[in-house]
Amino acid sequence: MMAAMALFQATRLVHLSPVDVVIIAFYFALVLAIGFYLKSRANTSEDFFMAGREMTAWVAGLSFLSANLGALELMGWAGSAYQYGILATHWYWIGAIPAMLFLALIMMPFYYISKTHSVPGYLKLRFGESSRALSAISFAFMTVLMSGVNMFAMAKVMQIVLGWDINFSIWVSSLTVAVYVALGGLRSAIFNEVLQFFLIWAGALLIPILGLYETGGWGNLKVLITQRASAQYVHLWSGLGSFTTNPMGIHWTGIVFGLGAIISMGYWTTDFLVVQRVLTAKDLRSAEIAPIIGAGFKMLVPFIVILPGLLGLAVLPVKLTAESAVTAGGHSYNDVLPLMLARYCGPGLLGLGITALIAGFMSGMAGNVSAFTTVWTYDIYRALIKKDAPDHHYVNMGRWTTVIGVLISVGTAYLVMQFASIMDYVQALFSFFIAPLFGTVILGMLWKRATGPAGFWGLLCGTLSSISMWAWVKVDPSALRYVALSPNAKALAQDMYQALWSFLVCVTVTVAVSFATKPKSAAELTGLVYGLTEVPSVGDLPLYKKPIFWAAVVIVVLVILNVLLW
Amino acid sequence: MHGSGISIWFFIGLSLLVNGVLIAGAGIWEWAHPPLNPVVLFHLHANLWWGVVLAAFGALYCYKFVPGRES
Q1: In terms of CA atoms, which chain A residue is nearest residue B7?
Q2: Do B19 and A349 touch (CB under 8 A)?
Q3: Nearest CB partner across the interface for A59, out of B1, B35, B54
Q4: Which residue has the higher pLDDT, A112 or A7?
């Protein structure tokens, strides 16, 4: 332990005690033990890539949520709450809940009935091989890059917060992820995601509790924030009537249509990283309930992410700034969560909080690597390279792809280290693909007239249009007034409108090409399209066991929360 | 997830139990030896009672989902 601690450097945001280091070491030992234990349960491809399709609704639902609840997300959104106020909550509520419920009730039956292994696999069934190839190659490429970006971000955070050496963080975390995913496959990744979910709540819940105690409750907190920033930092909707009356420079149309209707729908319903978790459910009812369980907990996440950012605004004695404006001894917005952790958490609690962050980063990596492994093996290797190998061949390919995926991620992490702006580019590239993919999948599921060539060209044109808009603003920043409808728009606002336009391009091209090409017969579309598919009933259940009931409960609570914080 | 091996909930319980005991232990030590630079709201001894809460939940999960026990 002392040798490991010697690797830590002197400059750091927080100081760990021996008990904190023991807690972190115990986490690493536990995840490796889980990986070794699950190796014996990952012998077939269905086991390795789909966790045997035996997960309960709770496990699939918590894993579905956790795959998105990484440390980058926690620290980033806490920082955004400090920077933009309570507006950041929109990314957890209207920017997630309706989409999760839409996945549960409308889209999941089609994914589940078609028994597809992946989202590109659904595109193959609905639109043909070319759409699958385009989507699979883009997804595999972006996923492994994102894993590297996550890895670098974790190493950087550990350097800033704890003073750890970057190489130490990258290699320890990546080797651990490689071992437990290569051994136990998706089941191992899911187990660790559920573990991470509990660690994050156990490690972060004290910050808002103690913060509200210190400030004297929510009412006093609002007063303090109004004094130190402005009253608009504590209102969700009342400042969104104009681009200039809120801290984010966004209009309510961007939040509702760009974020709520397109970006979140695209992410939560077509990003295979999260959808894969639900596809492991043991039956259709579990697959429908799982995203609803995820949505219920997603509504609570602002309590441990947004509230610490707002509390930081009220109680921290220092003023945080943008990353580019940090001076010697200063801190950026993204440091708000570790600063709040250090403010309230003594020995032991600090170790648990740091473990929660490490677990979040590693789960993010494991999620990307396991999704990459599945898409590579099923949608690229088996579809385009070796079609008829025995089952164990694909399992071995999955294990090796896991290791190779992690090594590529490590390479990406070092690449990002050399060229910091690549991180921005990779994240932007990833977002290019999500909105048009949603357009393609949703038309495929709901409109029987959509044809194979239309799916391919719609997806391609939508993606290219998004990249073009992003490049246009990069080359000529004044183009923001056209792309985001306002020269005052911040980066997040630009993303919302870019997604909206690329979705519309995808839909327009898909509709136009569909009318110019020959439709598929009804028989070919059975099981894939709404109206031509008999969706099996979840059974004759009492009301409180039906997915629709719990979806309605979640929606009612969502509406009440938004009205209360209007 | 049950019956054919160790349940995921047992691993969760084990993690909460071990972490809870360690955190509560650190809290008792801090109470007996107050630090020179305490955290804000140190007088609430958050690590002690939070550690106890985590350990209690962890022990409950371990008991309920221990391998071999029908749940």
Answers
A1: A191
A2: no
A3: B1
A4: A112
Q: Which of A16, A26, A352, A358 to mutate to test the interface with B (most CBs of B within 10 A)?
A: A352
Contact B35 A55 (CB under 8 A): no
pLDDT in tens, A236-274: 999 888 888 888 788 888 889 888 888 888 889 888 888
Place B70 in a pLDDT band, splitting at 50, 70 and 90.
Answer: low
Q: What is the pLDDT of residue A427?
A: 62
Tell if the CB–CB gap between B5 and A206 is shorter than 8 Å: no
More confident residue, A500 or A508: A508
Quick one: which H or E segment has residue A252? helix A252-253
Q: Which range (A34-48, A368-382, A406-420, A445-459) has the least confidence?
A: A406-420
pTM: 0.87
Rounded Cα distance between A70 and B71, Å, is: 31
Burial of A25 (0-12, 13-18, 19+ CB in 10 A): middle
Tell which residue, A386, A496, A343, has the closest CA to residue A434: A496
Q: State the greatest distance between any 2 C-alpha atoms of chain A, in Å, as a whole number.
A: 70
CB contact under 8 A, A349 and B46: yes
Q: How far apart are the first and last CA of chain B?
A: 11
Q: How many CB pairs under 8 A join A and B?
A: 93
Q: Which residue of B has its CA nearest to A210?
A: B41
What is the structure's pLDDT at A306?
Answer: 94
Write the ipTM.
Answer: 0.94
CB contact under 8 A, A342 and B41: no
Q: How far is residue B3 from each of residues A183, A281, A470, A559, B7, measured CA to CA in Å? A: 21, 17, 52, 41, 8
Residues pairing with A321 in the sheet: A332
Q: What distance in Å separates residue A348's CA from the closest CA in chain B? A: 4
- What is the model's pLDDT at position A532? 81
